TrEMBL record:
It comes from Glycomyces algeriensis. Residues 13-122 form the FAD-binding FR-type domain. Signal peptide: none annotated. The lineage of its organism: Bacteria, Bacillati, Actinomycetota, Actinomycetes, Glycomycetales. Keywords: 2Fe-2S, FAD, Flavoprotein, Iron, Iron-sulfur, Metal-binding, Oxidoreductase. This is FAD-binding FR-type domain-containing protein.
């Protein structure tokens, strides 16, 4: 008797309709979008800090647009309040990002896939997490940092933006710093304004990161895991510098900032 062996078929993720409960300006070209998740869908939308959601929207001409955006909130917020938050920066010719920034309103309904992505780790209280990030790449990082700090871990964060006004989640980061004190080592880099120190003023290039490390502002040997999020060249260049400095575990995510 012949037996045919078949691999089990994986269930494809299903689209769900979620209602927008809030749209809040973060900068002149970025908004925070809050989604309400009903009780019966909270298990499906449970996630790891660093993961993303994929949205589906049909344009007026019938074209189907799908875009993915990282979650800025934590799993605790989903469990306690039934909400998911994302940061969306408008980019040139960005169909969904432009729609989210200029037209999306509370009460609108979006088609959403459950969270996906590999840019995460199991958060531990005895770990030190480091991150180098630019622009809207802060979205998954603020979720990871918040969860890590809530767990009792230490976080080092270098965050590059043009100015204070263009910095997404600036107020939230300051609040995390006030709440957690020295366990959040926050270094804000300014490319078109004066930073908190001369080394934090100007582009965050691999060479500049090397100078920051040499000056002792950041010690890679204290950090157990790194999360890098931003433009392609920045992420790969920073990764090379950290590896040369002895970093072992580095997670990367490429972003349009």
């Amino acid at each position: 008797m012949a037996v045919e062996l078949k691999k089990p078929r994986k269930n494809r993720p299903a689209w769900h309709k979620l209602t927008v409960s809030g749209v809040r300006p973060l900068t002149e070209d970025a908004v925070e979008v809050t989604l309400a998740v009903p009780e019966e869908l909270r298990a499906a939308f449970d996630f790891k800090p660093g993961q993303h959601l994929t949205f589906q929207r049909v344009e007026a001409d019938g074209a189907e647009v799908r875009r993915s955006y990282s979650l800025a909130s934590t799993p605790r917020e989903l469990a306690e309040h039934g909400t998911l938050r994302l940061g969306i920066r408008s980019i040139p010719k960005g169909n969904f990002s432009g729609y989210a920034n200029r037209q999306l309103l509370p009460g609108d309904v979006l088609e959403v896939l459950p969270p996906l992505g590999h840019f995460w780790t199991e958060i531990r209280a005895d770990r030190h997490y480091g991150s180098v990030v630019a622009g809207s790449g802060i979205t998954p990082i603020i979720a990871i940092a918040t969860a890590a700090l809530d767990a009792g871990a230490t976080v080092t964060l270098l965050y590059s933006n043009r100015t204070e006004e263009s910095t997404m989640f600036a107020a939230e980061l300051r609040e995390l710093q006030r709440e957690h004190g020295p366990r959040l080592r926050l270094h804000l880099v300014r490319t078109r304004a004066e930073g908190d120190a001369p080394l934090l003023t100007g582009r965050l290039t691999p060479e500049r990161l090397g100078e920051v490390i040499e000056a002792g502002l950041v010690d890679p040997h204290e950090v157990d895991e790194w999360f890098l999020c931003g433009p392609y060249e920045m992420v790969l260049g920073v990764k090379d510098v950290l590896e040369e400095a002895g970093a072992q575990r580095i997670h990367t995510e490429l972003y349009t900032v």
